[in-house]
Design brief:
558 residues; Rossmann fold; alpha/beta; elongated; six-stranded parallel beta sheet; eight-stranded parallel beta sheet; UDP N-Acetylglucosamine Acyltransferase, domain 1
Length: 558
């Protein structure tokens, strides 16, 4: 033994190792050589990666979600891994759904719930909120991402790790080129090629004959639409070709609908190319020239194509942007990100280093649970307080135990019964944050997909198991304790007629309700009670008793 300290081992996980994510990970690895880096990923970039020595170990993820969960579960439990760095939303899900976690860093590279669809926004935001309850650190790319991560869970540490250019900074003057615009990225809804085409048409009305290039590939329909209007689509290209394409263009136009902070903008700035971008939250506080509409972008591009002073101002903005997003700054923040915390993951503060959110709207309320007022004696309030960060994982653990250890975590996560519980917890989380409409959408989606009608207003303790959830109904005022087991066709609900306050049942801990049973009205079911199949319970059942029949009569088991 030579006495040298062992390197801290970082496992990078992503399902999209290509394009911007690939270049971002490679830059991170190059700027943190004091750590050992391993890669578990899938994507086009793996073919090139195996020819280099950035990673000490490379393994490819399989194609299906179940197989990926199994492989990541094995990797998480393998000895020698000090920290897992999950890149992108799916990788964040795969890693954070594991029951036992090492230290985890989640870097979304743009939160998926920034998309415009109300249904997807609610589903993704709810899933991110639940997963943010797990111990982790957030690696964020911009003040906007920092604010969104804070909104998910203000108790989790957030560290701003800026992107940096992946191409050399051009020091010489740019040569004169034919009028052309360029965009770099995956052809996808996020990058919005239709917006790029609308911009191109508007530019051509002002400057006829302008050429256009899209560097990247993706959706075949989007590719055909681009090519139909004369856009040259290069497909994915190596770094040398990317540099050549950027140096041959006149203006870089960024059309994405949402981002973390795009590497392509930094690469264009590094090559001295004027940048014009669609106004999105990712650019808040930066010097990137942003415009709200197609016509305003087209006007700015046209001015840059013909006007020298506008090019000078664009060059000054590029210099300022590169100062903000420097390799020195990234190395400092990566060191802070990868070094072990002093005591686990308690730190709530954002480590932005340079001030505030640059005018971001602080009216975006946090999604962290609000504390209930102290001194309340109502049992319902105490139960709601008990439903915290462990609920979903206890639900998963209970479902695993219910299968007698015969199934893996991955297989259990993908069952209908766990999906029903997961979507119920999502709707609960949204409802507690007064996001009533998204909560209702998720509740209805749950009913359509799984057949379970679970009101998000109900108070249900952790460890819920829904065997065959079709036909299960839980009313909005019901209270159900920990580790409840409900079989198919169970109804737990109120009479609908006010009668001295509450009209809905209250179930204790570890209650079992058999298939087709009905528990109706303001009755109390004691802990560890068992309700027989097709029983109709309208009166109290004591602790540990068994209730059967119509109407149900209770007795103690012999």
């Amino acid at each position: 033994m030579n006495g040298a300290p062992e390197l801290r081992v970082i496992l990078h996980v992503t399902e999209c190792y290509e394009g911007g994510v690939e270049r971002a990970i490679r830059t991170i690895v190059r700027n943190s050589p004091q750590f050992e880096h391993r890669l578990l990923a899938t994507g086009r970039g793996l073919n090139d990666e195996r020819q280099e020595s950035l990673f000490s170990q490379i393994n490819e993820l399989p194609d299906t979600h179940v197989a990926r969960l199994r492989m990541i579960h094995s990797a998480v439990r393998a000895p020698g891994i000090d920290l897992i760095h999950a890149h992108s939303s799916w990788a964040g899900f795969y890693v954070r759904v594991m029951p036992r976690l090492p230290q985890v860093i989640y870097q979304p590279h743009g939160f998926a719930f920034e998309m415009s669809s109300a249904l997807k926004k609610g589903l993704f935001a709810g899933a991110e909120w639940l997963l943010a309850l797990r111990p982790q650190r957030f690696a964020v790319l911009s003040p906007r991402e920092d604010l969104l991560a804070k909104r998910l869970n203000r108790r989790r540490e957030r560290i701003l790790v800026p992107n940096v250019p992946t191409v050399p900074i051009r020091r010489s003057a740019r040569p004169a080129t034919a009028a052309s615009i360029i965009m770099v990225g995956r052809i996808s809804v996020q990058k919005d090629p239709s917006f790029f085409l609308s911009t191109l048409r508007a530019v051509r009305r002002e400057v006829p004959g302008v050429q256009a290039v899209w560097v990247g590939d993706g959706d075949p329909t989007g590719r055909r639409a681009l090519q139909a209007e004369g856009v040259r689509v290069t497909g994915w290209v190596p770094s040398e070709r990317l540099i050549s394409e950027l140096d041959s263009a006149s203006v870089y136009v960024h059309s994405a609908a949402y981002e973390g902070f795009p590497l392509s903008v930094l690469d264009a700035a590094a090559r001295g190319l004027p940048v014009v971008a669609r106004a999105i939250h990712a650019f808040s506080g930066s010097t990137v020239a942003q415009y709200e509409t197609v016509d305003s972008i087209a006007t700015a591009v046209s001015q840059l194509l013909v006007d020298g002073p506008h090019k000078d101002r664009a060059s000054a903005r590029n210099d300022s942007l590169l100062d903000q997003m420097s390799e020195r700054r990234q190395r400092e923040q990566l060191k802070r990100l990868y070094e072990p915390p002093a005591a686990g993951y308690p730190a709530p503060a954002s480590v932005l280093g340079a001030g505030d959110h640059h005018g971001e709207d602080e009216r975006l309320s946090t999604l962290a649970p609000r504390p209930n007022p102290s001194g309340l004696r109502d049992g319902r309030t105490r139960l709601r307080n008990a439903i915290g960060a462990t609920s979903l994982m206890q639900d998963l653990r209970a479902n695993l135990e219910g299968r007698d250890g015969s199934a893996s975590v991955a297989a259990t996560v993908l069952t209908t019964r766990f999906l029903a519980t997961f979507l119920f917890r999502v709707s609960q989380a949204l409802g507690r944050k007064r996001l009533i409409f998204p909560a209702g959408i998720v509740k209805q989606f749950n009913q359509v997909i799984t057949g379970a009608d679970l009101a998000w207003q109900a108070s249900v303790g952790p460890g819920l198991v829904l065997y065959h959830p079709v036909g299960v109904v839980i009313g909005p005022d019901c209270v159900i304790g920990r580790s409840a087991v409900l079989q198919q066709g169970v109804t737990i609900g109120g009479t609908g007629r006010p009668r001295s306050g509450n009209t809905s049942p209250t179930l204790g801990d570890e209650v079992f309700v058999g298939a087709g049973a009905r528990v109706i009205g303001p009755c109390e079911i004691g802990s560890r009670a068992r309700i027989g199949a097709n029983a109709v319970v309208v009166k109290d059942v004591p602790v540990g008793a068994v209730a059967v029949g119509v109407p149900a009569a209770w007795r103690y088991p012999s």
